[in-house]
Amino acid sequence: MMEVSPSENVSLREFGCEQTLLSRPDGSASFVQGDTSVMAGVYGPAEVKVSKEIYDRATLEVLVYPKVGLPGVRERSQEQCVRETCEASLLLSLHPRSSLTLILQVLHDAGSLLSCCLNAACMALMDAGLSMSCLFCGVTCAISTEGEIITDPTAAQEKESRALMTFAIDSKEHRVMMSSTRGSFSVQELQQCIAISQKASEKIFQFYRDSVRRRYSKNL
Amino acid sequence: MFSVLKERVGDVLLPGDEFCCGPQETLSLTDSGKPERLVAGPGIRQSGDRLLVSRSGVLRHKEPNKFWIESQQRRYVPAKGETVIGIVTAKSGDVFKVDFGGSEQASLSYLAFEGATKRNRPNVQVGDLVFAQFVVANKDMEPELVCIDGSGRANGMGVFGAGGLLIKVSLGLVRRLLAPHSDLRADLEKLFPCELVVGMNGRVWVRAASVQQTLIVANLLQSCDTMTPSQRQQLFKRVQQGGL
């Protein structure tokens, strides 16, 4: 594992979250990272279509809706990334022959959209009270043309970057659950980015804990 | 033995949190031979001598050895023995199909009513509300409801009469309403006489003396979900003085 030297800054933009903000879904959350904002809603365990039924676990469906227009190829690839991460962390075998639907509505894209989607998804799944083996969070890293690594980049920084990577990291052992990369980079740069993301994930998990604690403080 | 866990009672835990509850290293001579066994309730899974948290919420404890995670949920997952309010959606042969808000419909036999025989069928129509209990509820089988207890008595279960209003609230609020010595119920009792049927699936049926009073109780219950006790008492006081 790469060591992160203290001089390397793991700076994330301001982030915020609200849970149970929608009345109809079983669980909902909105996650804001800087100007990027995503709203997530979870339905389930609910009735499943016979064609999608899996006999020993729940069927998870993830839908990503862009801010304007209809979902396209980009959204499909984001859906797949989020779905595979959620499937790895959820205990789907507890609800066989049922369906879980996760809907992600992009409210504003100002960079690091996929990581914001992952964070919103995790908060919404937690809000719905679904059983999970661990939590996960998303961190995006961009490598600029000068070789500098920027965590949680803005849209402008993303555009100028040479490479862009998003990792999903689990809360137990801080391992990489999913990675989505674009551009060219060396093996060393990849490992450096993973190490930085793992460091950044600690901040996000601490934030998760604080925000759930705040939510339950009312009923104590 | 569960001291690690007992220290955290009342804390908010997240999925992925882990506890080690290994066997004691030293044998105490005063203890009786049987070791204490931990009962893991909702949100806690046991794996060897480790305890894994699988849901976010507050850790609760009941003497001597029950632990569970209390969380706010909206979707109901059936459990054996729980009573729910269901809606009859279909009559097929000798069973009724009942929607209780879960992932599939439950079946309710026409013989599972008080005094029902093959000759004397109960009068249940599609669309009726029933208050019933789960006798079969596990993840691999179709859930099954009955409207009688073990001795064949209705015991409060059966088809609902006319009037009243059905509302949906969160599962956390339902558990608070059903808890013994619930302060929410005590506050509600002070307002005016009303009839409440509370299903574990988050459905609550309300009937008071007039339609207006029924609506007041229904609205109060739905807004109680997100209020602190002091906020709630303030609101109830205003209603009592006719302020709403």
TrEMBL record, chain A:
One of its GO terms (biological process) is poly(A)-dependent snoRNA 3'-end processing. InterPro entries: ExoRNase_PH_dom1, ExoRNase_PH_dom2, ExoRNase_PH_dom2_sf, PNPase/RNase_PH_dom_sf, Ribosomal_Su5_D2-typ_SF, RNase_PH. Residues 12-130, 135-199 form the Exoribonuclease phosphorolytic domain. One of its GO terms (cellular component) is cytoplasmic exosome (RNase complex). Coiled coil: none annotated. It is found in: Cytoplasm; Nucleus, Nucleolus. Keywords: Cytoplasm, DNA-binding, Exosome, Nucleus, Phosphoprotein, rRNA processing. GO terms for molecular function: DNA binding; RNA binding. Its main location: cytoplasm. Gene3D superfamilies: GHMP Kinase, N-terminal domain. Belongs to the RNase PH family. Homodimer. Component of the RNA exosome core complex (Exo-9), composed of EXOSC1, EXOSC2, EXOSC3, EXOSC4, EXOSC5, EXOSC6, EXOSC7, EXOSC8 and EXOSC9; within the complex interacts with EXOSC3, EXOSC8, and EXOSC9. The catalytically inactive RNA exosome core complex (Exo-9) associates with the catalytic subunit EXOSC10/RRP6. Exo-9 may associate with DIS3 to form the nucleolar exosome complex, or DIS3L to form the cytoplasmic exosome complex. This is Exosome complex component RRP46. It comes from Cyprinodon variegatus (Sheepshead minnow).
UniProtKB/TrEMBL annotation, chain B:
The keyword Nuclease does not apply. The keyword Cytoplasm applies. It comes from the Eukaryota. Residues 164-212 form the K Homology domain. Keywords: Cytoplasm, Exosome, Nucleus, RNA-binding, rRNA processing. Residues 41-75 form the Exosome complex exonuclease Rrp40 N-terminal domain. Its main location: cytoplasm. GO terms for cellular component: cytoplasmic exosome (RNase complex); nuclear exosome (RNase complex); nucleolus. SUPFAM superfamilies: Eukaryotic type KH-domain (KH-domain type I) (SSF54791), Nucleic acid-binding proteins (SSF50249), Ribosomal L27 protein-like (SSF110324). It is found in: Cytoplasm; Nucleus, Nucleolus. Pfam families: KH_6, Rrp40_N, RRP40_S1. One of its GO terms (molecular function) is RNA binding. InterPro entries: Exosome_RNA_bind1/RRP40/RRP4, KH_dom_type_1, KH_dom_type_1_sf, NA-bd_OB-fold, RRP40_KH-I, Rrp40_N_euk, Rrp40_S1. One of its GO terms (biological process) is exonucleolytic trimming to generate mature 3'-end of 5.8S rRNA from tricistronic rRNA transcript (SSU-rRNA, 5.8S rRNA, LSU-rRNA). Belongs to the RRP40 family. This is Exosome complex component RRP40. It comes from Cyprinodon variegatus.
